[in-house]
Design a protein that fits this description.
Elements (H helix, E strand, L loop, with lengths): L2 H12 L8 H26 L4 H30 L11 H31 L4 E3 L3 E3 L7 H36 L17
Antiparallel strand pairs: 1-2
The structure holds protoporphyrin IX containing FE (2 copies).
One protoporphyrin IX containing FE binds next to helix 2, helix 3, helix 4 and helix 5.
Length: 197
């Protein structure tokens, strides 16, 4: 096979096709999944700690990682806009297609809304967000105790919503794989597993 041909295949693997997600979409998906799990746990643990040094350090890491997730989510969305996702598997009921699309929109919404409400809560609390100690992210609003409490409640509520939507989403992926026996899960898995015919 010529070198040009090999390069063309490598580039095609990076991008989505009508049949499967490309390497870039897969990498964004699974990297963000891992970071969200760590981020969620950090938030819950920090929240339960008594006021003190440990809580401060953990919360500061939570904020840095949250801003990292926001950056990755924005890059992912840009990539998504430039790269059409594979369509629904053939024969899937229209209601299920709609449910799938709605879940994906909700997940993208949460990937933006969670960090933004956290960032707003921190600004209202007059507790600036440092990105891994490298630089301080500008505050979005002036300090305000009441608004801090509102935003903090909203941030918590969104984390509960995230659990519900992710559970539904992961369950759907497993149902596709084991019950419908289609390619929906396989095409999001790295390593280019052979698709079912
Ligand atoms: C995807 C991103 C994020 C997730 C999944 C997440 C998750 C969480 C969780 C699970 C909690 C504990 C809530 C509880 O159960 O009590 C929490 C608290 C908190 N998070 Fe986040 N977070 C994210 C991003 C951020 C960002 C970017 C910031 C700030 C820049 C932030 C600031 C906070 C603050 C200040 C609290 C404590 C709120 C309070 O005092 O009640 N979070 N977060
Ligand atoms: C924090 C957790 C997760 C988030 C935020 C998330 C987010 C997303 C988003 C936004 C998409 C749509 C991609 C696009 O077309 O642009 C997607 C697709 C997908 N996700 Fe997740 N996901 C999560 C966890 C999981 C888990 C645990 C699984 C597997 C059990 C999974 C399996 C899939 C599959 C198979 C697709 C492709 C669906 C299709 O082609 O219709 N995801 N995910």
């Amino acid at each position: 096979m010529s070198q040009d041909c090999q390069e063309l295949i490598a580039i095609r693997k990076l991008k989505n096709t009508a049949e499967r997600y490309g390497i870039v979409s897969q990498a964004f998906h699974w990297l963000i999944v891992v970071l969200i799990i760590v981020q969620y746990q950090m938030g819950r643990i920090a929240e339960d700690l008594p006021l003190g040094f440990d809580k401060l350090v953990l919360m500061s890491r939570h904020k840095s990682l949250g801003m990292t997730i926001l950056g990755l989510a924005l890059l992912r969305l840009l990539w998504r806009l430039a790269n059409k996702s594979p369509g629904s598997p053939p024969g899937l009921h229209r209601a299920l297609q709609g449910l799938g699309r709605t879940t994906h929109v909700a997940l993208y919404g949460l990937l933006l809304a969670l960090p933004i409400t956290g960032w707003l809560a921190s600004s209202y609390a007059n507790s600036p967000v440092s990105w891994w100690g490298w630089f301080t992210v500008p505050d979005l609003v002036m300090p305000d105790k009441e608004n801090f409490e509102r935003l903090s409640e909203l941030h918590q509520l969104l984390t509960r919503f995230l659990i519900v939507v992710v559970t539904l989403h992961a369950a759907a992926a497993l149902v596709h794989h084991f019950y419908f026996k289609d390619d929906v899960l396989r095409r999001m898995l790295p390593g280019w597993p052979g698709l079912r015919k």
